[in-house]
Design brief:
Layout lengths: L4 E7 L3 H18 L3 E8 L5 H8 L4 E5 L5 H9 L6 E5 L3 E3 L3 H11 L3 E9 L10 E2 L4 H6 L2 H6 L19 E3 L1 E2 L3 E5 H6 L12 H11 L3 E12 L10 H20 L1 H29 L4 H17 L9 H10 L5
Parallel strand pairs: 1-2, 1-4, 2-3, 6-11
Antiparallel strand pairs: 4-10, 5-11, 6-10, 7-9, 8-11
Helix pairs in contact: 9-10, 9-11, 10-11
């Protein structure tokens, strides 16, 4: 019998998170009550996830990717084995509430025009994550959108809408939803071209939601479906410098892909301006105080990496090795 749903989870050094996630899925699927295929794909972390799944979750399919080809590419690779009418791309560092899958499934059936459907993401303490829903980015807002400014200037015209301001008892049409939990029809994901191959990490969720809209679909946020998202559980501390610059690389690719080289170049220039301003402010504070705190040192390091990337000196900022590996191996992704 063909399964109603395929759940795909990408593991990258997050075996313990995967275990918790699968346990919560077991409970949720009993409430869902329909045949479901679960696929876990490991992005060359070789952290023992395959052995754990074999021993504790024998009904879960496991794929071992020989190379770290990136989040979107791993999802695409696992999708080649998907059999469900619907597909649920789920981060490993999540715990789904018992009725979340059923509510997402019900919502997408109620909206035949749905492209990507997302859930309410919660922190471990029960507070709502702003990343549940996303506003279509532009170079200026993306550059100035620091957490400090969002708190001091909470104008929805700039950053919103915010998930916490939306009613829980209905669905909401939004620009984009978080890649931590993306529920879609199998046919729609195939039609719009899957995750774009050029994104190694970051930005692939925004790009997928944009493709959904370009194909005439709407993206829905379903706040009644709740998922705890620990956030950062799949990332290694060693990748901090890489992550900082990879976010900018992905941003550049997003703007270039969807708006053209001129807008992408503007984004890159504004990132340089932002980096110079922030480095200058932190340096001035350090000179005034006669010392440089650990926090300020980290801030300087971060924006130094950003400035190097903005000037085209990507090698110093480390992610070039990941980019080379991605380019070399992306022919594996169908």
């Amino acid at each position: 019998m063909k399964p109603e749903l395929t759940i795909i989870i990408v593991n990258c050094n997050s075996k313990d998170h995967v275990k918790k996630c699968l346990k919560s899925i077991d409970v949720a699927l009993k409430y869902f009550g329909k045949a479901t295929q679960i696929i876990v794909i490991d992005g060359a972390s070789y952290d023992g996830c395959g052995e754990m799944i074999s021993n504790e979750f024998p009904n879960v399919e496991f794929i071992q990717s020989e190379y770290n080809i990136g989040f979107g590419a791993c999802n695409n690779l696992a999708f080649n084995q998907a059999l469900g009418r619907y597909v649920f791309f789920l981060n490993p560092d999540t715990v789904v509430e018992f009725d979340a899958i059923k509510k997402l499934h019900t919502a997408i059936k109620e909206h035949p025009d749905a492209g990507v459907v997302g859930a309410k993401l919660l922190n471990n303490d029960g507070t709502i994550q702003d990343s549940c829903i996303r506003k279509t980015p532009n170079p200026l807002i993306t550059t100035i959108g620091s957490e400090y400014l969002k708190k001091k200037l909470p104008f929805s015209i700039l950053w919103g809408p915010f998930a916490k301001d939306l009613r829980d008892d209905c669905s909401h049409i939004v620009d984009a939803i978080s890649g931590a939990a993306m529920f879609m029809r199998y046919d729609v994901f195939s039609e719009i071209g899957r995750f774009s191959k050029e994104f190694f990490m970051y930005g692939e969720d925004m790009d997928l939601c944009m493709k959904s809209r370009k194909y005439g679909y709407l993206n829905y946020y379903i706040p009644g479906a709740k998922i705890v998202h620990y956030g950062g559980g799949s990332s290694s501390e060693k990748l901090n410098a890489v992550s900082i610059v990879m976010k900018r690389i992905s941003g550049y690719k997003y703007f270039n892909r969807n708006y053209g080289i001129h807008i992408a170049s503007l984004y890159r220039f504004l990132q340089l301006v932002s980096a110079v301003i922030r480095i200058s402010i932190v340096s001035a504070i350090a000179i005034k105080n006669g010392t440089l705190s650990k926090g300020n040192r980290n801030t300087l390091k971060k924006w130094w990496f950003v400035s190097l990337w903005s000037l085209g000196i990507e090698k110093v900022a480390e992610p070039s090795d990941y980019e080379k590996q991605f380019v070399k191996e992306k022919q594996l992704v169908l």
